[in-house]
Amino acid sequence: MKKVTMYSTPICTHCNEAKKFLEDYGDVELEVFDVAADAEKRKEAIEKSDQMGVPVFEIGEEIVVGFNKTEINRLLNLEK
């Protein structure tokens, strides 16, 4: 199973779209952190991405900022 860590906020439209996109694949283990409610995870996301925007994805050793389907598909080798 492929593991993805996602930093997001509940009101972020792109975050919610990304969650649905990843949940549609049965072999992706998605761990989601709400950076609006968790200051430590917010700091962690900023340190990893050098940005304050969400969503931020950690896939293996790679960081993806924003809901970039092409990059996420490439890193996870997903096919629909």
What does this protein look like?
This protein has a 4-stranded mixed beta sheet, sandwiched between helices. 38% of the residues lie in helices and 28% in strands. The model has no long low-confidence stretch (mean pLDDT 93). It starts with a strand and ends with a helix. With 80 residues, the protein is α+β, with helices and mostly antiparallel strands. The protein has one domain (2-60): 3-Layer(aba) Sandwich (Glutaredoxin). It has helices at 13-23, 39-49, 69-76; strands at residues 2-8, 28-34, 56-59, 62-65.
Number of helices: 3
Helix content: 25-40%
The overall pLDDT, averaged over residues, is: 93
The value of Rg in angstroms is 12 Å
Which topology does CATH recognise? Glutaredoxin
Looking at the overall shape, the CATH architecture is 3-Layer(aba) Sandwich
The CATH class label is Alpha Beta
Order of helices and strands: EHEHEEH
Distance between the termini: 16 Å
Q: State the low-pLDDT regions, or none.
A: none
What number of structural domains do the residues give? 1
Beta-strand percent range? 25-35%
- Strand line-up of the largest beta sheet: 2-1-3-4
Largest sheet: 4 strands, mixed
- Class computed from helices, strands and strand pairing: alpha+beta
Please give a quick description of this structure.
The protein has 80 residues and is α+β, with helices and mostly antiparallel strands. It has helices at 13-23, 39-49, 69-76; strands at 2-8, 28-34, 56-59, 62-65.
